[in-house]
């Protein structure tokens, strides 16, 4: 039995890592990082994802399933895109997927990582020279 516990203890760190890397995979594929950090703020003004460190798992689960914030604001009823994607997309995430996302944002996401992603905005959203000329 003790040997079994030892093996389990050895495997646990790998299991934890598997969970955060699954969370990272989801964060990039379902678009959290794209909307929150890689899109021009004039198009989508989403707050830095580091805000999730102030969420409990229960509050985060409610946010993903219903679009209601930690403070109780119902974003879908306010016409906010985050409310729509929560209701129409993230509500389909399994409990394990929500937990994996949460663990990734709590353990591996940092404000600095968000800033790194935001450096891509001027590259993706560069205006054609003709538009720049018109504005001058
Ligand atoms: C289509 C773009 C879009 C996608 C995709 C998106 N978000 Fe958002 N998110 C927003 C916008 C815009 C806001 C600000 C909405 C508001 O304040 O009404 C927001 C707000 C939030 C907030 C702040 C809520 C608060 O307390 O005020 C959190 C946390 C959040 N999103 C997490 C996520 C996570 C996690 C994902 C991925 C699973 C995600 N978002 C995907 C656009 C998006």
Task: List its salient traits.
about 140 residues; mainly alpha; Cytochrome Bc1 Complex, Chain D, domain 2; globular; binds heme C
Give structural notes.
The protein is mostly helical. The protein has one domain: Cytochrome Bc1 Complex, Chain D, domain 2 (Orthogonal Bundle). It is 62% helix and 0% strand. The chain has helices at 2-29, 32-38, 57-66, 81-88, 95-107, 111-118, 121-124, 129-135. 17% of the residues are buried. The structure holds heme C. The site of heme C (HEC) has 22 residues, from helix 2 and helix 4. Heme C binds at residues 30-32, 35-36, 44-47, 51-52, 63, 69-70, 75, 78, 80-82, 85, 90, 101.
Number of helices: 8
Shape: globular
Q: How many discrete domains?
A: 1
Beta-strand content bin: under 5%
Largest sheet: none
**How many DSSP-defined strands?**
0
CATH topology descriptor: Cytochrome Bc1 Complex, Chain D, domain 2
CATH class: Mainly Alpha
Topology order in helix (H) and strand (E) letters: HHHHHHHH
What distance lies between the first and last C-alpha atoms, to the nearest angstrom? Answer: 76 Å
Taking pLDDT < 50 over at least 5 consecutive residues as the criterion, the unreliable ranges are none
Named once each, the bound ligands are: heme C
Roughly how much helix do the residues carry, as a percent range?
A: 55-70%
Class by alpha and beta content: mainly alpha
Q: What kind of assembly state do the chains in view correspond to?
A: single chain
Radius of gyration: 19 Å
Indicate the mean pLDDT: 90
State the CATH architecture: Orthogonal Bundle
């Amino acid at each position: 039995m003790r040997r079994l516990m030892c093996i389990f203890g050895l495997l646990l760190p790998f299991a934890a890592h598997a969970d955060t890397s699954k969370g990272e995979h989801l964060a990039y594929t379902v678009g959290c990082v794209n909307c929150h950090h890689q899109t021009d703020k004039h198009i989508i003004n989403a707050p830095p994802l580091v805000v999730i460190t102030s969420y409990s798992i229960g509050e985060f689960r409610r946010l993903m399933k219903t679009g209601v914030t930690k403070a109780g604001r119902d974003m879908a009823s306010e016409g906010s895109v985050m409310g729509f994607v929560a209701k129409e997309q993230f509500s389909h995430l399994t409990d394990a997927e929500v937990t994996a996302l949460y663990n990734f944002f709590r353990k591996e996401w940092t404000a600095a990582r968000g800033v790194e992603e935001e450096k891509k905005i001027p590259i993706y959203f560069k205006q054609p020279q003709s538009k720049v000329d018109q504005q001058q």
